[in-house]
């Protein structure tokens, strides 16, 4: 199975649609077999989602992710685990071990003018309120 994380400076990038790179992991029942870092081909959730699908990715672990990206990934059959931060290798190993504890959805509530109708959300609270670790896609 192939997993991907948005990647920036050795960490899981907290904004899916703006990630400069992705780290893609080939995982078998025995563990991580291979990990490669690839430059993002284009930007925005549609281009990135299609790029990941072309790489054979079946699931994405990420920090913040907006509604549009969730829909684009779902339409391509890619599962999403939001609310993940830190070292991507450790996060994938925790997923394999069954110990991964994401911080939460990151987004999904009220509308957000930059993301269109239904928008990013941030869980229904104002953008000036604090966010838990794992971030929110509304950080600009």
Structural summary, described in words:
This protein is of the alpha/beta class and 140 residues long. 21% of the residues lie in helices and 23% in strands. Strands 1, 2, 3, 4, 5 and 6 form a six-stranded mixed sheet that branches. The protein is globular and about 30 Å long. The C terminus is likely disordered.
Summarize the SSE layout with pairings.
Elements: E1 2-8, E2 11-12, E3 21-28, E4 31-39, H1 45-54, E5 59-61, H2 67-75, E6 79-81, H3 88-97
Parallel strand pairs: 1-5, 5-6
Antiparallel strand pairs: 1-2, 1-3, 3-4
Features:
globular; six-stranded mixed β-sheet; 140 residues; 6 strands; alpha/beta; 3 helices
Explain briefly what this protein structure is.
This protein is of the alpha/beta class and 140 residues long. 21% of the residues lie in helices and 23% in strands. It contains 3 helices and 6 strands.
Principal-axes shape call? globular
* Alpha carbon gyration radius: 14 Å
What is the assembly state of the chains in this entry? Answer: single chain
Number of helices: 3
Helix vs. strand class? alpha/beta
Mean pLDDT score: 78
Strand content: 15-25%
**Uncertain regions spanning at least 5 consecutive residues:** 106-140
Helix content: 10-25%
| Helix-strand topology string | EEEEHEHEH
Care to count the β-strands? 6
Distance between the termini: 32 Å
Report on the biggest sheet: 6 strands, mixed
């Amino acid at each position: 199975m192939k997993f991907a994380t948005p990647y920036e400076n050795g960490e899981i990038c907290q904004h899916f649609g703006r990630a400069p790179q992705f780290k893609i992991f080939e995982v078998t029942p025995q563990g991580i077999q291979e990990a490669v870092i690839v430059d993002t081909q284009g930007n925005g959730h549609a281009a990135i989602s299609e790029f990941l699908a072309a790489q054979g990715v079946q699931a994405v672990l990420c920090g913040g992710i907006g509604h549009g990206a969730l829909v684009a990934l779902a339409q391509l059959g890619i599962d999403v685990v939001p609310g993940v931060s830190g070292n991507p290798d450790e996060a994938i190993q925790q997923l394999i071990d069954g110990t991964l504890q994401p911080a939460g959805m990151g987004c999904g509530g009220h509308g957000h003018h930059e993301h269109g109708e239904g928008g990013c959300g941030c869980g229904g609270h104002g953008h000036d309120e604090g966010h838990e670790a794992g971030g929110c896609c509304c950080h600009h």
